[in-house]
Amino acid sequence: MSMKKRVLSGIRATGRLHLGNYLGAVKGMLELQGDPNYECFYMVVDLHTITTPYDKETLKESVQNVVIDYLACGLDPEKSAIFIQSMVPEHVELAYYFSTLVSVARMQHLPTYKEKVKQYPKNVTMALLNYPVLMASDILMYKPQLVPVGVDQEPHLEVAREIARKMNQMYGTDFPEPKRFSTKGEYIPSLKGEGKMAKSVEGSYVNLADTKDEIQKKIRSIPTATKAGGEMTPGIKALFTFAELFLPKKTEDFKKKFNDGTLQFQEMKDAVAEAIYKELQPIQEQRKKIEKDTEYVRKAIEEGAEKAREIARQTVSEVRKKMGLS
Ligand code: TRP
After folding, report:
1. Does ligand 1 come within 6 angstroms of the Cβ of 45?
2. pLDDT tens for residues 100-114?
3. Mean pLDDT, residues 216-232 taken together
4. How far is the CA of 253 from the centre of ligand 1 (A)?
5. Mean pLDDT over residues 222-230, rounded?
6. CA of 288 to the centre of ligand 1 (A)
7. Residue 9 Cβ < 6 Å to ligand 1
8. Could you please report the per-residue DSSP string of 18-77?
9. pTM, full prediction
10. CA terminus-to-terminus distance, the chain
């Protein structure tokens, strides 16, 4: 048995990845994949995707696209187990066992739940309420120390830690209390200047697949001001966040120019757009190659799922025994 510490993360299959996913989650996933002390499990969470309205005709394709994006970004099936959540049905089983320890009220108070209720008032389902419990199952199944995800997922991680504590207390299991692994880009603002970059908000995001022109157009659309100086508006702050992430050496200079009123926003925006494209271009090239190699993708997922299932079977069997079910 390997003594490596474990890492687990997942991304919902809402079409193709955007810059927020890349900076907030994938970069952390890559960093940990490169650390020989960790064994990594990275999945596409299709069961979470169906907690809100979705299209059954395109779900599989969306899932596949996220896997291909993962691979194009540098996730390596030789190093990490890459798989699809529903290929390991134990996740659902463990979530059910965990749900016996979680109150309805606790779930109703989560900010992520409240947001979704507002967004989809006609689709407030049991699956939506249970979302954090399924996520706790995803995580605790592999008993990981670290979970690379965006800062907005902290409330869900807290639920996972609570469940771990309760399980350990009541049933004598040995679930760890996993910590979030954060990256420099853990909070990526929306291009609209309000809230975070999100797939569900049109005009808020840059896709990993965007062309140079598309990126330039989108970055130019960030609401700034005609004149530099004074208080920074949310849009200007967003632009500076992108500058810090993609042009760290030039940011001080932009700031100085902003303060003395000489900053040309268009110039800064185009420099930022160019830097973003430069980082995305190799990923896009890689993607074109991987897209064609369906056998490589299929094999990566099959092997990843096999590795995941082996651990999942052990965890569920242990929980069933400790809970008095077998
Ligand atoms: N809720 C996460 C998100 O929206 C996705 C997710 C599901 C996840 N299960 C997970 C993330 C397990 C990390 C670990 O980003």
Report:
1. yes
2. 999 999 999 999 999
3. 92
4. 37
5. 89
6. 27
7. yes
8. BHHHIIIIIHHHHHHHT-TTEEEEEEEEHHHHTTS---TTTHHHHHHHHHHHHHHHT--T
9. 0.93
10. 25
